[in-house]
Design goal:
By secondary structure, this protein is α/β, with parallel strands linked by helices. The protein folds into 2 domains: about 100 residues, ATPase, nucleotide binding domain (Nucleotidyltransferase, domain 5); about 170 residues, Exopolyphosphatase. Domain 2 (Nucleotidyltransferase, domain 5), CATH 3.30.420. It is built from 14 helices and 11 strands. The longest helix has 18 residues.
Length: about 300
């Protein structure tokens, strides 16, 4: 099979992630892997709709990506914000009219399956049961499986941006943990006590915290893919954000200051997962949904 240059755009609640790569069988050669923070789901939890500003920012980002790319085929995937917004059709219609492309809005379960496939790509082979957490802006996908098969997958309708905007208490780590602990415990019960030995995390929160730990000024995915963060590492980073004002928090994350206000809620989700599943550390993956869709396009529509 000849190389196919494919573009996959993951349209998330907080960010747009774009992967352009040459694909041959089950191997890909990355041309670029880009993230743009657009806050498509800003205030969605309070209004039930995507704002005009969120739509405009996200459409403009996708137009820029398309303009900068040369590809044989493009796949645009919508996730939690587009699943739940009453006016999702306004956004997908603009993409169709402006770019001639369709946005495929996938289920939470399908997102979990694709995220699991993508997160494992180019990590060391693991022969033990794996727990994957993909913490996004609007939802968290939790998956148990092995490198050969997926056992269980659940999507929890809580993510870092959604949790932040719910405003259920002070902007503190313990408040965010308490806000999600019951949701995570419910998923653990659905998994019927399945044992897991390795915890892999993906999504903007955990990759940002890994980059912060390494003092990255510019985000370098290759430098953090496959490193481990302990619960103590996550707690220390979160406490540093908690001690600083919103303005000073931006200085702690120079490669993406717009994400500064989501580090605490995102860390709260990860620490709740680690507590419930009794995990002491998390293996960081910069893969995820876009890589899963690139590697297994057959899974998108099945």
């Amino acid at each position: 099979m000849p190389d196919i240059r494919q573009l996959v755009i993951d349209i998330g609640t907080n960010s747009v992630l774009a992967l352009l790569a040459d694909r041959r069988h089950n191997e890909i050669s990355v041309v670029f892997d880009r993230m743009i923070t657009t806050r498509l789901g800003e205030n969605l939890v309070n209004t039930g709709e995507i704002s005009d500003q969120g739509i405009d920012r996200t459409v403009a980002a996708i137009e820029d990506i398309i303009r900068d790319s040369r590809f044989d085929s493009a796949v645009l995937i919508g996730t939690e914000a587009l699943r739940i917004a009453r006016n999702s059709a306004s956004f997908t219609g603009l993409i169709r009219d402006n770019l001639g492309l369709e946005v495929r809005i996938i289920s939470g379960e399908k997102e979990a399956e694709l995220s699991f496939t993508g997160a494992l790509y180019r990590l060391p082979a693991i022969d033990r049961p794996i727990l994957l957490a993909d913490v996004g802006g609007g939802s968290t996908e939790l998956v148990i499986g092995t490198t050969d098969s997926l056992t269980s997958a659940e999507s929890v309708s809580v993510g870092a941006l959604k949790l932040k905007e719910k405003g259920q208490g002070p902007d503190r780590l313990d408040v965010y943990i308490d806000s999600v602990i019951d949701d995570i415990r419910a998923v653990r019960n659905l998994f019927l006590g399945e044992a897991v030995e390795t915890f892999i995390g993906t999504g903007g929160t955990i990759t940002s915290m890994a980059a912060i730990k390494l003092d990255q000024i510019a985000f370098e995915p290759s430098g953090i893919h496959g490193i481990s963060l302990t619960a103590s590492d996550i707690l220390a980073i979160a406490e540093k954000f908690e001690r600083n004002s919103p303005q000073d928090r931006e200085k702690l994350i120079p490669f993406d200051p717009r994400r500064a206000d989501l580090i605490l809620p995102g860390a709260g989700i990860f620490l709740a997962i680690m507590s419930i599943f009794k995990m002491e550390s998390v293996l960081v993956s910069t893969g995820g949904l876009r890589y899963g869709a690139m590697l297994r396009p057959d899974l998108i529509d099945d």
